Amino acid sequence: MRMITFSILRHFKYNNLAYNITRRLKSDAVEVKSDDLKTTGSSPDPDYIEVLPSWPEGEAIMRINATSSMRIYPNFVSEEEEASLLAEVEPQLKRLRYEYDHWDNAIEGYRETERDSWNNQNAAILKRVRDTAFQPNAQLLPRAHILDLAAAGYIKPHIDAVRFCGNTIAGLCLLSSAVMRLVHESRPEFQLDALLERRCLYVMRDVSRYEFTHAVLGGEHSMWRGEKLPRRRRIAVICRERPLPEHRE
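-> structure tokens emitted (249 positions)
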């Protein structure tokens, strides 16, 4: 069966996921400001992005570029809306099995599908995602991508390929919170964590997508500000822009 998610990865590379963050990290969140990311709906909260201690002092420009290209909207959907989305995708997911032998070893414990039609309530939720995350003239891929990550599953560091999706992606995080680790591709000391709380919307574009690897931490490595963040099964509903014409296959 053709893999949907990780056929879009240009490459992935391992980073030391056992990086020591067992002590409480000092908050170094940067105020997120960007005219390109709209702020309708829930307000983005910069406290959900944590710059790690390895980040060199005085490297403020890269820090601003990285944090301003990622936004997290906590409590973007209600419990009722989450339940509605899950009720529609679960029958489709239950027909699939979790995969543990991905072709390039980039992910452990996942299943995935796509969906282009929704009931009225869920269609309204997806419209709110699009209105919040994308510019009015953005050309989106017609199908939302559904990624189901098992409780013991995790995503290894990777950078997305421009030929499979465009500049901006937006994902709803359902069932479980998770920590996303971002590490600069050529300057690994530039590291930050993003807390993707259950029912949040996260939006990534520009620097955070193409200059930083991103990974979803699992198991003993799932930590936020020095404290264990228990990982349960997590479903992401992701909307993506079409790739630019010059990048399409």
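The first strand starts at residue 9 and ends at 12.
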